[in-house]
């Protein structure tokens, strides 16, 4: 992960449908401003789990940004439900889970609920874009078993081998300058 | 008997959509998003003031004693405010909120209450809000470092 501040690499969120689950109005506004700045046009704004579940049942989404929703952990439960819902293709869609206070227990819950990645608040545009581009990369395996449904938790992003400036895959090229 | 694990690589449309022609470059996108966030600055400061007033109310109602319901509500309030100050790029208030959330999380689990530790956080909250946009960075850093020590010390007992 990571890109330079002056990167001229292009990306396009204009056709991407994003579901945002965030219960506080200002927290929602922050995410909507960030996504709008990135060029996302279709954002489903949900302030309750019930509304988010309805969107998942009725529309196809390409990315979910889900708040953990504090002590209740309702955001974790929503992702767990999504992964086991069998609603395709939404059940496989990348999930970025956001959390405010992040004790170790919350991180473990986030990992085990089936989110692709966890972001601790405060959210900055740069960090959010970095994570969106990271989860968009193809090739993350999905595991479905009795105790867990979600992206393979065994991964390591070790970056490029020493001496290489650019990666060889097309996805790596997404972040190339120019 | 448990089912064997199924491992597969689903098609992720996001990967294709994000590479479609057009769009924005990274620098422009981040700059546009930051401009959008600036429009929320006033609202964010107003909300932080409301959070401070509510936090002081919880602190006074605790009356130097542990109250489980109150500490949970206090923790929820602070937890919900983390991230709001960054709208105005105010990392200091966010650091203070995280430190206070650490402290309250410890108290709500342990059943203890440290009146002075909470008070020093709220005093700092007040100070940071009052001096927003006009702070000495070194002094602010020293205050925040002190707060983190208070939280860690409380958690060690």
Helix fraction of chain B? Answer: over 70%
Mean pLDDT of chain B: 89
Q: Roughly what is the average pLDDT of chain A, rounded to an integer?
A: 85
Unreliable sequence segments of chain A: 168-178
- End-to-end Cα distance of chain B, whole Å, is 46 Å
Spatial arrangement of strands, main beta sheet of chain A: 3-2-4-5-6
Q: Hey, roughly how much beta strand do the residues of chain B contain?
A: under 5%
Could you estimate the helical fraction of the residues of chain A in percent?
Answer: 25-40%
Number of domains of chain A: 1
Rg of chain A = 16 Å
Please compute the radius of gyration of chain B using only Cα atoms. Answer: 21 Å
Figure out the total of helices of chain B.
7
Instruction: Please indicate the count of domains of chain B.
Output: 1
CATH topology of chain B: Four Helix Bundle (Hemerythrin (Met), subunit A)
CATH architecture of chain A: 3-Layer(aba) Sandwich
User: Count of DSSP E strands of chain A?
Assistant: 8
Largest interface, C-beta within 8 A:
A-B, 62 and 58 residues
Number of discrete helical segments of chain A? 6
């Amino acid at each position: 992960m990571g890109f330079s501040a002056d990167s001229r690499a292009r990306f396009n969120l204009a056709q991407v449908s994003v579901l945002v689950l965030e219960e506080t109005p200002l927290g929602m506004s922050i995410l909507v401003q960030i996504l709008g700045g990135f060029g996302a046009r279709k954002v489903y704004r949900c302030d309750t789990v019930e509304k988010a579940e309805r969107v998942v049942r009725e529309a196809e989404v390409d990315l979910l940004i889900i708040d953990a929703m504090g002590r209740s952990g309702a955001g974790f439960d929503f992702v767990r439900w999504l992964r086991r819902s069998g609603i395709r293709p939404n059940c496989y869609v990348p999930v970025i889970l956001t959390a405010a206070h992040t004790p170790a227990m919350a991180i473990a819950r986030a990992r085990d609920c089936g989110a692709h990645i966890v972001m601790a608040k405060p959210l900055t545009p740069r960090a959010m874009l970095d994570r969106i581009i990271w989860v968009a990369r193809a090739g993350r395996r999905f595991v479905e078993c009795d105790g867990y449904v979600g992206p393979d938790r065994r991964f390591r992003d070790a970056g490029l081998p020493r001496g290489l400036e650019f990666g060889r895959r097309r996805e790596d090229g997404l972040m190339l300058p120019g | 008997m448990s089912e064997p694990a199924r491992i597969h690589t689903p098609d992720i449309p996001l990967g294709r959509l994000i590479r479609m022609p057009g769009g924005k470059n990274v620098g422009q996108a981040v700059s546009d998003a930051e401009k959008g966030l600036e429009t929320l600055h006033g609202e964010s400061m107003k909300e932080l003031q409301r959070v401070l007033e509510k936090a002081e109310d919880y602190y006074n109602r605790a009356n130097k004693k542990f109250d489980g319901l109150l500490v949970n509500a206090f923790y929820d309030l602070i937890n919900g405010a983390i991230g709001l100050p960054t709208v105005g790029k105010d990392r200091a208030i966010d650091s203070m909120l995280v430190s206070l959330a650490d402290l309250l999380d410890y108290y709500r689990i342990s059943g203890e209450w440290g009146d002075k530790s909470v008070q020093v956080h709220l005093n700092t909250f007040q100070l940071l809000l009052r001096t927003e946009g006009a702070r000495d960075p070194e002094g602010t850093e020293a205050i925040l470092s002190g707060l983190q020590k208070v939280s860690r010390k409380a958690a060690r007992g």
